[in-house]
Amino acid sequence: MLHHSATPGGNVRAFDAWHRSGARHFALGMAYHFVIGNGHGMADGEIVAGSRWRLQQQGAHIAARLRDPETGANLAATSIGVCLVGNFEHASPTQAQRASLRRLVRALQQRYGISAARVRGHSDVHPGHTACPGRALRAIEREFTREGAQDTQRDPFLAASTVCPASTYH
To answer: What is the pTM assigned to this prediction?
Structure first.
């Protein structure tokens, strides 16, 4: 599930603090599994796995009541939240962010057998509620769907990660 931070900068620590104490009050902290930096608070294109990924916890990046229209599964329990730092209603992700997103998504697709059609933005599953992930990131999201699984090269990105069972993220 693709998101934008809707902020000019940020990092895992800042998002964790905001999610714990801000309007969200998430006891487990940052809602996302991964954050990709834009050079303002994190290195441009830097991918950081949050504690929810490291501890294999359910994300809190979408409403818990939302269900997958195809499977009926709870989306919060079965999706991987990826947040790119920036506001993509007003700007585009950097080239480094785009490259990192592509690498991360491809690695997750390979590891868990996720089809290109399952790479979605927040507003795709919660229309009318949010502009997230922003116009520019939605355009990039559509590229994943058009390209499909054409990139079959194995990516060692997740080789050292602790991972959930593959069936969790289909």
So the answer is: 0.75
pLDDT digits (tens, 9 = 90+) for 67-115: 677 777 766 677 888 999 999 889 999 999 999 999 999 999 899 888 8
13-29 pLDDT tens trace:
998 888 778 666 776 77
Interatomic CA distance for residues 34 and 54, integer angstroms: 10
Residue burial 65-104, b: 16+ Cβ < 10 Å; e: rest: eeebeeeeebbbebbbbbbbbbbbeeeebbebbbebbbbb
Instruction: Give the N- to C-terminal CA distance of the chain in Å, as an integer.
Output: 12
Q: How far apart are CA 61 and CA 57, in angstroms?
A: 12
| C-beta separation of 3 from 32 below 8 A | yes
CA distance 146 to 102: 13
- Domain positions in the chain: 2-153
2-153 falls under which CATH superfamily? Peptidoglycan recognition protein-like (3.40.80.10)
11 band by pLDDT with thresholds 50, 70 and 90: very high
According to DSSP H, which parts of the chain are helical? 12-21, 51-54, 75-78, 95-112, 122-125, 135-147
